[in-house]
UniProtKB/TrEMBL annotation:
Its main location: membrane. Residues 32-49 are periplasmic. Belongs to the DsbB family. The lineage of its organism: Bacteria, Pseudomonadati, Pseudomonadota, Gammaproteobacteria, Chromatiales. The chain crosses the membrane at residues 47-64, 69-89, 139-159. This is Disulfide bond formation protein B. The keyword Transmembrane applies. SUPFAM superfamilies: DsbB-like (SSF158442). Disulfide bonds join 41-44. Residues 1-14, 161-167 are cytoplasmic. The gene is dsbB. Required for disulfide bond formation in some periplasmic proteins. Acts by oxidizing the DsbA protein. It comes from Spiribacter pallidus.
Amino acid sequence: MAAVYRQKRFNRRVNALVTLVCFALVAVAVALEHWAGMEPCPLCWFQRMAFVALGVVAAIGVIAPGWVVAGLGVLAAVSGVALAWRHLWLQSLPPSEVPACGPGLDYMLETFPLADAVAMILSGSGECAEVDRVLGVSIPAWTLLAFLILGTLMVLGNWRARGSARS
């Protein structure tokens, strides 16, 4: 019984940590936008949404850790990894191959059907190829690392939750 209690407490603490880190990273992104003048591109916005989704799933895991929470957390983290990877790829293109800058995110969402706007955002544009660095590392590289770590924590913090409840 004590082992089950310790395991559930561990699961909840890991989920609480992931929740706090996700929302702290979004707060840092907003701070960089407002105080450092780093304007987010559409892919940056989607990466923020992936952090929010992961944070919400982890918050649910504080209340009810388990394999469903782990799966949803991994889904959010893998989505974030894919977005960050795409962003890094756009940043690695030679200037001659960078796509032209597109319309702003607000304009795309107001003007085009949602599926078309999302497709345009995911294809990337010139503003996504601009490289802003924090501590010498590009922001998409930081987000890629964060999604990998947080996704791993979601698995570790929820993997044994179901099995420990039956013990």
